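worker-03 picked up job from queue 'complexes'. Input manifest follows; two sequence lines, order preserved.
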Amino acid sequence: MKAWSLAFLGALLLPLLAYAAPDPQDLLRASDAIRNPGRPFSVKVTLTDFEGGKQVDTSALVSYSRAQEEGGQFASLIRFVLPARDTGKLILRNGDDLWFYDPNTKASVRLSPQQRLMGQASNGDVVTVNLAKDYTATLLAEEDVLDGERRTRKAYKLGLKASTAASTYATVELWVDAENNRPLKGRFFAESGRLLKTVFYRRFESHLGRERPTETVIIDGLSPKSVTLMRYSDFATPPIPQAWFQREYLARFQPE
Amino acid sequence: MSFSKQPIATAIAAALMLISPATQASDAEADALDLVSAPEPDKKAPDATTRLFAEAALGSVSLRHGAGSRSLRRASIDVYHASRLSPAWRMTLSDRLDHLHPTSLMQGSDTVNSLREAYLGWDGDDGKTAVEFGRINLRQGPAYGFNPTDFFRDGASRVLTSVNPFSIRENRLGTVMLRVQHLWDGGALSLALAPKLANGPSANGLSLDLGATNNRNRSLLSFSRQFAGNLNMQALLYKEPGLRTQLGASLTALIGNATVAHAEWSNAEEPSLASRSSGRPDPVRSGNRVAAGLTYTTPGKLSLTAELHSNSFAAGESAWAAGSGAAERGMYLLTAEQRQDSAARRGALLYVTQKDLAGIRNLALAGFVRFNIGDHSRLHWAEVRYQWRQTDLALQWQLSTGQALSQYGLMPERQSIQILATHHFQ
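worker-03 finished. Artifact:
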């Protein structure tokens, strides 16, 4: 009789266990792994800026990224390809260490996070960043969300809170596809609670061994008519040594 | 009894939004999702880096001492190319051709070619070790207006097209040298050896002008270290014949989210700047050069840099008051300009940039005021620049103020205004 009761209770609990909410930090890590390959990689990014639906600017850059042994966060070296006036200029980001380098003047200038937000590279951190390293996640809801392709998807809504001083955003709301852990949508907030960016990840294609988003739609929080599309192509895994990620290397940087 | 359909529809819509807000895109989001990315510029990002632009300037300058005014004209072509020849070898070539009216004070010629860089580089397999040989523009120091640790600055500026310190750097000649650098995680050590190749600068505008940069044997050893992400420092040892080894150090630090601090210092034992300009013998003495400042950036894209400069080799007020005439002082200022040294014993710089000026995208303001704290003279410069995709149009204004024999009051040009058009070739 006792055994029967336990079996009955077990049968009742089994479906509940199957539907138990996953660990939010694990979800965040899984979502990070879809955006970022697990080894040093380069990707070409084409940026298209719109104002009120009208295309006002285009630019292109190549981003070289490598996860750092200490802390696990990505360091990135961004090389501008277009527009022509910016060709060859570099931005190095390694945590708080931010440098702008112009080969014409040979000047490497340290940037504050505020200065970085003034330029195109400000959008880089919604692409190549290990959110799980800098944010603590909680599960806010399981809900349907409209994704970047205008499809309704069942998603986990995660609330991310900055856990390091190097985090660009104080809080983030991130919707992760409940079926496959794909990042679908993010809302990035300042410490004041002001919405800085709304981001949609879309056009998932197979690159470097798995399906990854190849386009990000970034809507300015303050001025929602300002939109940037970031298109990713030419994913590759060239040698990207750790020595690249310091100011002294910038003058030597010339990719193969 | 009939109900208006509109309030009901609104109420249903509101209720739906409350029930499931995430499935409803806002108008802005819906519009954004309809947008289509521009085509990629190339199938593959170019391996080589090439920048080529042509610039034309036209303006007018009003002169002091009743000399009236004169026109300014300039045409320039500027090219930079860097590429990898093999996995281990790379090359860099950087050149600029200026045609000027009136001619530069530093050059007698109205057409000046500046071969800024031409060198080969070899990189070790792990990317940590590099050897470079050729004409290399080795620039040191984080300060904006005066760089005490920039030991290869002397004689490197061939054509002065603007008083803006960032423009001065664009026209700077490299020094022929052999340079070896070794990097490790968070640090770097490098040695530069620059031989004497000629006795002095050339007046020929088409000359390589190796005598401007390689008129004595020089060597520089530098050590850089990164501390915890927000502090970077560099220590330098510089040696040239006849003078004691000079010491230098610089640092940059991030303070909070919006402020960057920088400082640089060098110590030397050398003749004063006044004795260099006059040719009068002067015993060498020990002294310091210092520049320190802060850059603060607002969320509104305004960046403000305030910097203090000190140069104990510059002429102080007492030396000025000792009765040197305008010609002697003019020569002194020219010597300081050629050596890229601070003519002021104590000076200050306020530098401002504003992106998206007046809310207009691609319109930027840059400007600065230089102060000679000792004689209270000032140099003002401002530029408004609009950028199209490949072309820039800029308006520049410059004004020098001060008493007759002060640093900036002595400049022949009192005020100038010029318009510049720059086309970047793709």
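worker-03 released lock.
Chain A touches chain B through 76 residues (CB under 8 Å).
Chain A has one domain: 23-252.
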